[in-house]
Amino acid sequence: MPISTESAADIVRLFRTGLGRRPEPAALANFASLLEDGATFYDVAHIIAGSPEFRQLHGDEDICDARYVSFLYHNGLDRTPDPQGEAGLMAAPNRGDGLVIVAGSEEARARTDLYALLYPEGASPQDDMAYKAWLLRYDRLSPTERLAIGRHIDQGMPSRPTFSLMLQVGNHRLDLLEETIASLEAQIYTDWTLIVVYPENLRPGIRTHLREIMRRVPGLVGVEVSSHQGVEGRWRSALAAAVGSFCAFMEPGDQLSRTALYEFAVAIANRPDLVLLYCDEDRLGSDGQRCHPSFKTGWSRDLAYAGDVIGQLAVFSRARIMAVGGIRDEGGSFARYDLLLRVTEGVPAVCIRHLPRLLFHRGRTPGLPLMFPLVRATQQHPEMRDVVLQHFRESHPDLDLKDVYIGGNVWPRIVYPANGTPLVSIIIPTKDKFRLLERCVSSLLNLTGYQNFEVLIADNGSTNPEMLDLLRRMGRDPRLTVLRLATPFNWSTLNNRMARQAKGDMLLFLNDDTEVLEEGWLTEMVSLAQQPSVGVVGARLSYPDGTLQHGGVVLTEHGPKHILRSAAEDNPGYLGQLVLTRDLMAVTGACMLVPRPVFEQIGGFDETFPLTCNDIDFCLRAREAGLRVVWTPHATLMHEDGGTRGRDGTARNLFNACVDVGRLLERWEQIMLDDPFLNANLEATDYTLQLATPPRAPKPWRRRGRGHKASTRTVLS
Prior knowledge:
9-stranded mixed sheet, single chain, 27 helices
């Protein structure tokens, strides 16, 4: 049984106050089970007071002496006892009662930050207990904020979008409909209507109850349909009754946060050409508690083909729905997903908006389908897969969808066609790393299935005799070109100079400490680079032991971070992020493919970044130019990391790397804080993805307040 936050907080306060520590997970679970089975706070306090640990800490005498009272106050209230409180506590009949008095006080309750106490090192978004504690800290709306929203609605919004919310009911569970209605009636933004579609064969009692609800709730419209009409037809009937400028599909029991429609309305008012909005969501458990959050990424078309990454609450432009033909029979139970693909087809990414805010709570309706990525477009879920294939036949007949096995599970892979075989120039900077270079080049020549490539080796002043001999031998191979550039190491300069010498239509920048692992890697990267608006393609790189070295880069206030570095080979990442092709802000230059026209348009690498961050800066300039940066897990190479220039362990290298990061942060200050592909409710280190403390998403009613800085540069989002 899930642990309630109330039980967890009680146990944490008792442990902290009486033992001076937080409970270990097993103890938390055991005591929570006692509370759920009917034990009281008093009972648990006396169990703790009778424990060997407690007696060893405080002695065997069961009296509340001054030393014991001081311990309780210091650990439970973070202060020394006041005279009156000390006197009252010393009069308690035993230590268990004294523990109850302090740990159960309002002061102790007010000081209990459950998340900080249980998870001082942070926690995964997939830990439901941590998520509940995190919600206690951050998911609150104060009366002052409520007033600020009201003022913004009345005085600060340039327009007032309207919403039609649609759902279907049948011959059961109108209590779930009531839950949805209650969440709508609690909305601060009130420009909504609710369209309830119901079959003509409703049982008399259900029909009477539904009519009572319709009479009671302003803005609720009932639509009766034939009992023979399918799910898709019922949605069409709902759409026919919709009057709002934006529409959303819901299920009975679904709930919105109080600010949901307000936040959607603000986004639409600020960008009237939006065709789709979506938000983060969680689920309501059988006990009514929120769990299983889904912290989504910014819009990525490739990712959307893998399954319904948007989730249940997609807010569509009604005009756009009508323009693409509305709900179709072909979608079956995935009719809304079919609609999503058609609504977003051919639409600029700036017209699709993700709000990284927990605005939707998926209902506890029994039998609801699982969410992405548990349900994805593979042969294991043929109806969803058929929706994607139908969309491809209609809009992208050259695309295909295949199943691939990664980490023992089946995942969808979008197969893009190569438009011919353009010449790829593979550029490799190197110096004295003859074993690394020989392995890298040998694997390129012997394992790469794509044949139309040349290799340009930039020797940055090698002196090692074995290296010089290797370079002479390589220079005799017509597929290889060796150029000596004996200048101080500057990664950007070396690659820019070699790019000018290259003959290829595509430029692949590759470190010499990499090794090709499978033949299809370059075909995959070239195919992606030929897709519309793609400017940069990155690959999956693994360490020699198979763990992850590069699964894409996210931006943070502390600089760029690799996603889940050292993750196990079979780890799919959060919401499938390590096994699905998707858009990112940046990828590493250790293996980066760029069409030559893009490289020339962007102006090459910035040579004022000699050591690090040059690849990130290039990607951000590509994004600023309206181009996409795409990462694929289907091009995999080994990368030792640091072999090309050596580890950045010297004082000079560390200093120069810090200078590069500092300049990157200064140049791209706001973008580093607002990476759309790192959810604002999550924070990344090089090795982990955790709940953000605090969340970074600005609240619309605070946008003009202190601490919010307008971006001076824009990127495609």
